[in-house]
């Protein structure tokens, strides 16, 4: 089956996720710089989450450009990824509203980790469909960066219970690793 509807649906869901996140930022009632100060944790949370959604959108786009077809397994794997991404507005808001308290930061990391795991499953469903010797599989390679990201998320979750900013810093580190678009699929061309 063709991939066009999957791409369009995914783009729509990601656009809605970003819209929900920005609508969660409440307009202050004051007109001074001081009235913006309480919103700083909310804005920082939003900024990191916006970057993450952008990273997933960008890499999802590049990955799907490298495939010609999808199947039911890929549809479900993609839905699994979208499920975890759809929790981003909730954990973003909870983390920002509670000024980076331990449990909200840990849960934020858990959702990020599950997004990474879901992306891994999606990529491997595509490998199963196209074959281990396909250009897609060769482009994905051993996906060291993806695996390392999940390990760093897990470490960040645990370290949140030492101090939540340690976990948050590790989540920022992973975002920095991915902010440059993944060119593996472009370099190998289509499957």
UniProtKB/TrEMBL annotation:
Keyword Membrane in annotation: yes
Species in which this protein is naturally found: Flavisolibacter ginsenosidimutans
Assigned protein family: Belongs to the TMEM175 family.
Subcellular location: Membrane
Membrane topology, record value: Multi-pass membrane protein
Cellular component annotations (GO), alphabetically ordered: membrane
A GO molecular-function annotation: potassium channel activity
Keywords, sorted A to Z: Ion channel, Ion transport, Membrane, Potassium, Potassium channel, Potassium transport, Transmembrane, Transmembrane helix, Transport
Record InterPro entries: TMEM175-like (IPR010617)
Chain segments annotated as transmembrane: 9-27, 39-57, 69-87, 107-129, 150-180
Stated name of the protein: DUF1211 domain-containing protein
Organism superkingdom: Bacteria
Catalysed reactions, as listed in the record: K(+)(in) = K(+)(out)
